[in-house]
Design goal:
This protein is mainly beta and 112 residues long. Helix content is 0%, strand content 53%.
Length: 112
């Protein structure tokens, strides 16, 4: 079956950096666009970044120039490099494959 496993979340001070990883199994990774979403307490889940099969990328305005999404097809892993973190980046971050498949999420907490 398809599995997406996120890692790399944690507690970081404002202005700091984290790198999230999402390891994928059970599908032909290179065939699918991959995305990172996040859900803050009391808010709806929102798209953070997306990377296509051809490595084209798309970002939410709130994270442009701070976050970078990348993928390693050989390792079947998608990454989210997050720099210049702000308190409003605090959320559970979810990996998504092909729209239909989700990981369980990893918590990112940004403190002052």
């Amino acid at each position: 079956q398809v599995q997406l496993v996120e890692s790399g979340g944690g507690l970081v001070q404002a202005g700091g950096s984290l790198r999230l990883s999402c390891a994928v199994s059970g599908l032909i990774f290179s065939n699918y666009a991959m995305s990172w979403y996040r859900q803050a307490p009391g808010k709806q889940r929102e798209l953070v970044a997306q990377i296509g099969r051809g490595y084209s990328t798309n970002y939410a305005d709130s994270v442009k120039d701070r976050f970078t999404i990348s993928r390693d097809n050989a390792e079947k892993t998608v990454y989210l490099q997050m720099n210049g973190l702000k308190r409003e980046d605090t959320a559970v971050y979810y990996c998504n494959a092909a729209i239909a498949y989700w990981g369980k999420g990893t918590l990112v907490t940004v403190s002052e």
